[in-house]
Amino acid sequence: MENKIKNECEIKFRLTADEKSDIRLRAQKAGTNVSEFIRTCCLSNDKVIFLEEGKTIAQKLCEIYNHLGYCASHQYLNDDISIQLSHNLEELSFQITRLVEKLSDIRSDEEEDE
User: Under 8 Å CB-to-CB from 106, ≥6 apart: which residues?
Assistant: First the structure.
């Protein structure tokens, strides 16, 4: 078994049981463990956004891609495909608009002054 890294240390902080549960759930949804989730949220130089809605947007983009691929391979765009693409684009636009409305810009006071 590998020894821990010599420079590794631990930070402890208090939170409620509900907060702990929420952090674990968010880490799970992000596809990572709690430690990595907290490190990413706290230490990233870039804005970090974890979105459940991203799955819906990705699915809609895949549907559009598949329809466009079909049209390209058959060299036509019939009314049914055109209607489906239009519907998917409208749904995607709606999802992206909802997503943008939920975004918040988190900066420290020092960053805002620059």
Answer: 47
* Residues 58 and 97 placed together within one structural domain of the fold: yes
Alpha-carbon distances of 92 from 60, 77, 84, 88, rounded to whole Å: 6, 20, 12, 6
Judge contact between 40 and 27, C-beta under 8 A. Answer: no
The range of the structural domain enclosing residue 97 comes to 51-102
**How does the average pLDDT of the chain come out, rounded?**
76
Q: Which two tokens stand for residue 69?
A: 């691929």
pLDDT per position as a tens digit, 70-103:
776 776 677 787 788 778 888 877 877 777 666 6
Cβ contact 42:63 at 8 Å? no
